[in-house]
Amino acid sequence: MSARSIYEQFDRDAWRALAAKTPMPLTEADLRSLAALGDPIDLEEADAVYRPLSALLRYRVLHSRALAQDQQDFFGRPQKRKIPFIIGVAGSVAVGKSTTSRILQNLLSRWPETSRVALVTTDGFLYPNAELERRGLVARKGFPESYNRRALLNFVTQVKAGVPEVKAPVYSHVTYDVVPDKYVTVASPDILILEGINVLQPAWFYRGHQDLPNLEKLLDQDDGRSGLYDHKSLAVSDFFDFSIYVDAKTRDIEQWFVERFLSLKESAFRNPDSYFQVYAGISDSVARQIALDIWTSINLPNLEQQIRPTRGRATLILRKDAHHRLENVYLRKI
User: Phi, psi (5° rounding) for residue 124?
Assistant: First the structure.
């Protein structure tokens, strides 16, 4: 990035040096339970990346609370409850968003000021497969228009408004579908981490996007208001207090996606209930070609057309090298 960039840049050594200011309570056992499949990470890497980031986020939470209190004092109104601090985590499929989110949830929950940290993925807000088929969106699953945007906006606004308990739908990576009548309850968290490939998508994308002529019609079917806002005029990211984009070179992400597919072929795909069970018995060479076909036809276009263009909207960008290790950090200037 140029010298006039809106981001401050930290190379790996400069960012890691900040870790000395922060305790690091993670253990090897923690990492084994937190790291997502295909995203190798060790204590040294977790220390270099997430120890400073957890401290930075703690400062942001405390300053956000102080500002909210100052504003209520200005109006002469008592602050009834703490406003949840919402963190968005975005990036491509297979780039490591889940590991980032899980480690941050673990670390942030160890600070006494932020002990209640909820983690929700946007997968549950995908339209069910039957609805995607009805709308002709099966081949675009994971693209912005495949999500129930109104439901996602309602969820985030209710959390931000301080509703004591808010439910989010659950997605099964075994059946590759939303689980009917199953929900996770978010109960007055100090922090909500919302993870999803398209959480930084701007609202204007949904208004007359030239590549999706039927999208306005689809949104009209969900028209409605909740409270004082029109869901068409807002983006989920409007409610974020901080956002993270996990980044890497396209060819590296492609390789990670293929490697993850091959690993799943030997594990999760063998589950008789798996949507992808048909791939469990194929050879590695055939599986590799199938993975590349899926990447080229779905995930790559989504990355290039929808996900990566939102990178500059993030508060912080974590840039990885080919080995999943931190290369650079870009933090938006205040």
Answer: -65, -20
